[in-house]
Amino acid sequence: MTRVLLLGGTTEASRLARVFAEAGVDAVFSYAGRTSLPKAQPLPTRVGGFGGAEGLARYLREAAITQVVDATHPFAAQMSRNAITACQITGVPLLAFERAPWAPEVEDQWQRVPDIEAAVAALPQAPSRIFLAIGKQNLSTFASAPHHHYLLRLVDTPGALPLPDAFAIIARGPFSIAEDEALLTTHRITHVVAKNSGGEGAEAKLVAARRLRLPVIMIDRPVLPDRNVTDSIEAVMAWIYHGADLGV
Ligand code: NAP
Predict the structure, then answer these.
(1) β-bridge partners, 46
(2) How close is the Cα of 107 to the center of ligand 1, in Å?
(3) Handedness of CA 79, 81, 83, 89 (dihedral sign)
(4) Which of 96, 112, 224, 230 is 20 to 30 A from 241 (CA-CA)?
(5) Cα-based distances in Å from 127 to 66, 91, 181, 190, 210
(6) DSSP-based three-state secondary structure for 79
(7) Are 9 and 25 in contact (CB under 8 A)?
(8) Residue 207 CB: number of other CB atoms within 10 A?
């Protein structure tokens, strides 16, 4: 008997949910509950934190989960760490679905930085027009560079923004290259700040920046402890059906 917990919040998690539903895999989809209108899933869905690694371990036991697939965003490091710990505590096997990071092309002007604080430090001294494509979390870190104009693209209408000169567009990806090129041009953007999320849905801004020869400050992914990882849906399905046989 298999009962999978699918940790979601990404396009890939939604894709996995569809494949699970079509294959009749008994699975529960889990959202953090960050957005006001999360995409409906073809699986039973729960919303909200578990209460840390201990809370997740308790949930795994109570819901009789036999396998966990972590398809959270590459920057959702806390959830991924909790999943590793909870699966160690309970002995429930874990597989992470992780999309490949983006890599720069020859014409790209990327400056890679290890974290958000380093991204702020990498901004120019002179007042500039920044497309801050990092979602709504961590915006306050940029309050230490208040002399820039910031263009934000968010899923939900924000409350008060921690940045004195910011303009927020409310939109949900995927975005096209033409759309993003027009966005960067219209807002006279001089620099792009992005997280190295990987995937297709958010890549257009990088192609647009390349075409417009704009510098990109690219934030590297947080480093996680060792875990089983794949970027293939077929491998996830094989693991669900035969994981124990594969020894993972
Ligand atoms: P995070 O910092 O790693 O997680 C913070 C806490 O939120 C976790 O400890 C957990 O609370 C809860 N949580 C996160 N993902 C959850 C899930 N799928 N189901 C239930 N609880 C969850 O995560 P985050 O960066 O805030 O991201 C939150 C969600 O947004 C994730 O599901 C992620 O896939 C999605 N997302 C994140 C980003 C990003 O850039 N970070 C971008 C796009 C989408 P408890 O400790 O109480 O269990």
Answers:
(1) 30
(2) 34
(3) negative
(4) 224
(5) 53, 52, 22, 10, 22
(6) helix
(7) no
(8) 16
Cα separation, 159 vs 115, in Å, equals: 25
Strands (E), the chain: 4-7, 27-31, 45-47, 67-70, 94-97, 109-113, 129-133, 149-154, 166-170, 191-195, 215-219, 229-230
* Distance, C-alpha 77 to centroid of its chain: 9
What lines the ligand 1 site, CB under 6 Å?
A: 7-10, 30-32, 34, 49-52, 55-56, 72-73, 75-79, 82, 135, 137, 195
Q: At 79, list the tokens.
A: 């959830």
For residue 187, the CA-to-ligand 1 centroid distance in Å is: 30
* Tens-place pLDDT, residues 16-75: 999 999 999 999 999 999 888 889 999 999 999 999 999 999 999 999 999 999 999 999
Q: Which amino acid residue places its CA nearest to atom 37 of ligand 1?
A: 73
Enter the pTM of the model: 0.93
Q: Which two tokens stand for residue 62?
A: 């109570």
Helix, strand or coil, per DSSP, at residue 67: strand
* The 129-133 sheet, strands edge to edge: 109-113, 215-219, 191-195, 129-133, 149-154, 166-170
Q: Which residues, 6+ apart, have CB-to-CB distance to 85 below 8 Å?
A: 53, 56, 57
Which two tokens mark 7? 């940790």
